[in-house]
Amino acid sequence: MDFKEKLKARAEKEGISLTPKQLGQFELFYKMLIETNKSMNLTAITDEDEVIEKHFIDSLSCRRVVDMSQIRTCIDVGTGAGFPGIPLKIVYPEIDFVLVDSLNKRVKFLKDVKEALGLEGLEALHGRAEDLARDKSLRAAFDLCVSRAVANLSVLSEYCVPFVRTNGYFVSYKGKKGLEEISNAQNCMNVLGCKIEKVDDFRLEEDEAERLLIRIKKCKGTPKLYPRKAGTPSKNPL
């Protein structure tokens, strides 16, 4: 099978029906990812089947814990090469997305992807979450925040929750170590005005690694103190 046939079949197993246009967008994204990766460190995963499973299908797993039909705005914090934001945008084109990364080279790549794939309603921003979360146009502006970034849940929540409107959600994509992080995150949840509402423990069919999706609901406004200045959350987690 070629790339599009593989992806179509794999997505259907997850209950996701992809149009010919969407399959073409995923294929072009894959080609750009592999080509750009030759000169820039975007991903260690380059095998076609592994990219489909560990990047594309994994990114779309958010739908397991969130009714995406109820989402109008989403921000992806620490998006890197565009995961989970780009796959989610392709499948849910009606949602407006903002992708945030602290490395300008990656943001330029994301802007090139946006242009090549014709993704309207998508913005890629260069900056640190600690700084951008103080921008009035971004703070408490999103129905959903997603992140596959590698950081402790308490640290990541301090970065992400300020972007979410009250009664909106933050979904953290984690490996099995996330369970331990959950047990240490209660103080963080209290301080930020949110609560862990659902934890989905699952494995993808083609990959035995255990995965967690942690859905956090924002119950009230985040105190103005948070996020603290750059570097502080990771050095001194809540």
UniProtKB/TrEMBL annotation:
Q: Which GO terms describe its cellular component?
A: cytosol
Q: Which GO terms describe its molecular function?
A: rRNA (guanine-N7-)-methyltransferase activity
Protein's UniProt keywords contain Aminoacyl-tRNA synthetase? no
Q: Is Methyltransferase one of the keywords UniProt gives this record?
A: yes
Q: Where in the cell is it found?
A: Cytoplasm
Query: What InterPro entries does the database record attribute to this sequence?
Result: rRNA_ssu_MeTfrase_G, SAM-dependent_MTases_sf
| Main location per the UniProt record | cytoplasm
Q: What is its EC number?
A: 2.1.1.-
Binding positions for S-adenosyl-L-methionine per the UniProt entry: 78, 83, 129-130, 148
Q: Which Pfam families match?
A: GidB
Q: What does this protein do?
A: Specifically methylates the N7 position of a guanine in 16S rRNA.
Into which family does the record put it? Belongs to the methyltransferase superfamily. RNA methyltransferase RsmG family.
Which PANTHER family does the entry link to?
S-ADENOSYL-L-METHIONINE-DEPENDENT METHYLTRANSFERASES SUPERFAMILY PROTEIN
Q: What is this protein's name?
A: Ribosomal RNA small subunit methyltransferase G
Which source organism does the UniProt entry give? Anaerobutyricum hallii DSM 3353
Q: Which gene encodes it?
A: rsmG
